[in-house]
Amino acid sequence: MHEHPQHVPDTRQAAKWPPDDDGPTGGMPGAPGVPPAPGGFGGGSFDPDEGNFKKGAIKAWMVIVGVAIVLGAVVLGIFAMKGENDKMSVDQIAAERKAIAVLPKADQLPKWRKWAARDDVMPLQEDAFANLAWAKDPEGLKLIIEHGLKHSEHQVRNRAAQALSEYGSPMADSAKPALLAALKDADSTDKPQIAWALAVLKEPSAFDAVLAEYRLGHLATIERLDGFPAFDPDTLASMVSLDKLATYATDSSDAVRQLIATILSRTGDAKWTQTLITLVQDKEPAVGREAAVGLGKIANEQAITPLLNALEHADRDSRTKFLEALRDGVGA
Fold first, then answer.
1. Does the pLDDT of residue 144 top 60, yes or no?
2. I need a labelling partner for 57 at 20 to 30 A (CA). Which of 38, 139, 215, 304 fits?
3. How far apart are CA 94 and CA 109, in angstroms?
4. Are 114 and 146 spatial neighbours (Cβ–Cβ below 8 Å)?
5. In this predicted structure, what is the pLDDT of residue 79?
6. Stretch 161-186: mean pLDDT
7. Reduced to 3 states, what is the DSSP secondary structure of residue 42?
C-alpha cells in the first residue's frame, strides 16, 4: 500500500510591524525612537536637514559665487594674455615709424593723432606729440592736453609739455589749466619742463614756481623737441612786469640776482639806476658784472660813480667788464 504524501496547506504569514525587537532600544543604534527615513528609495542614512529648502538655497548661492569667481579668473587671464600680446616690440615700433614717415604729410597726421590717443605704446605716443606740435595741428593739441598731461607716466607728461611749448602762445593757451594741475603733481622727471611750458605761455600765476625751478638750476636741463636747450632768460622775465622782477634784486639766489641784473641792464632805463647800483655792489662778481653793463648804458653821474667804486674793488675778470661798461657809457 502506497502512502501518499500529506498535503500541507499553503500558509503565508505577513511580516509583523513593528518587529518584536523594535522598541526603546531597537532601530537605529544610538538614536532611540527615531522613525525611518521618509519616502526613500531603498533606504539611506538619516539627514535631519532633509527637505529643508533654506539649506538648498544656501548651497545654490555658494555654487553661483564659485562659478562667478572661476569665470572672473578666466576673463582676467584672457585680458592679461591679450595685454602681453598687444605690447609692441622695438622692431615693430621702428617699422611703424618708417611706415608713417614714407606717407605724404597729409596722410601722416591722422596716423599720429591715432597714436597720440593711445596710452599703451609710449614711444609712438611721444613721437606723435612731437610731430603734431611741429605741424601745429589743432586736433593734435587737444589730444596732447587730454592724453599727455594726464598720463600716468611722468616721462610722457614731460614730452607733452615740450610739445605745448612748441605750439606756443596763443595757440596753446588753452593748455594752461591742465599744465597748472600737472605742475602740482609733477616730479623731477617732468616738473622743469612743465614749468617752462607755463613760462613760454606767459602764465603769471606760475612765476614763483618757475623761478623756484630756476633757483635750483633745473631749468638748465630743459630741452626743445629737437633736443636743443630751451632756456631763455627773456622768456622767463616776460612772465611778469619789470617792476615785479626788480623786487627780486636782493633774492637769496645768486642766479636770480644775476638774472635780474641782466634783464634790467638790457633796458638802459634810468628808472632802474638804484636797483643796478645795489646789484653792482653784490658779493657775487658775476652779478656785479651784469649790473655794470646797465649802469654804463644809463651813464649819468648817479650811475658812473658807483661803477667807478666797483671797478676799484673788482677782481681781474670783473675789472675788464667794468671798463667795458665805462667805455660804452662814455661813448654813449
1. yes
2. 38
3. 18
4. no
5. 47
6. 98
7. coil
Torsion of CA 218, 169, 103, 101, to 10 degrees: -10
Q: What is the distance between the alpha carbons of residues 163 and 308, in angstroms, rounded to a whole number?
A: 47
The neighbour count for residue 242, using CB atoms within 10 Å, is: 16
Residue keyed to cell 555654487: 63
Spatial separation of the C-alpha atoms in residues 110 and 152, rounded to whole Å: 24
Contact call for residues 153 and 179 (beta carbons, < 8 A): no
Cis peptide before 123 (omega within 30 of 0): no
Sign of the C-alpha dihedral, residues 153, 156, 160, 161? positive
pLDDT tens for 18-38 read: 555 554 444 444 444 434 434
* Residue 258 grid cell: 644775476
> Cell numbers 592724453 correspond to what residue?
147
pTM of the model as a whole: 0.70
CB atoms within 10 A of CB 226: 10
Which among 263, 259, 177, 175 has a CA at the least distance from the CA of 217?
Answer: 259
Contact assessment for residue 128 and residue 116, using Cβ atoms and an 8 Å cutoff: yes
The 3-class secondary structure across the chain, one letter per residue, is CCCCCCCCCCCCCCCCCCCCCCCCCCCCCCCCCCCCCCCCCCCCCCCCCCCCHHHHHHHHHHHHHHHHHHHHHHHHHHHHHHHHHHCCCHHHHHHHHHHHHCCCHHHHHHHHHHHHCCCCCHHHHHHHHHHHHHCCCHHHHHHHHHHHCCCCCHHHHHHHHHHHHHHCCCCCHHHHHHHHHHHHCCCCCCHHHHHHHHHHCCCHHHHHHHHHHHHCCHHHHCECCCCCECCCHHHHHCCCCHHHHHCCCCCCCHHHHHHHHHHHHHHCCHHHHHHHHHHHCCCCHHHHHHHHHHHHHHCCHHHHHHHHHHHHCCCHHHHHHHHHHHHHHHHC
Residue 263 near residue 237, CB atoms below 8 Å: yes
Contact between 190 and 157 under an 8 Å Cβ cutoff? The reply is yes
Long-range interactions of 11-17: CB distance < 8 A, separation 24+:
none
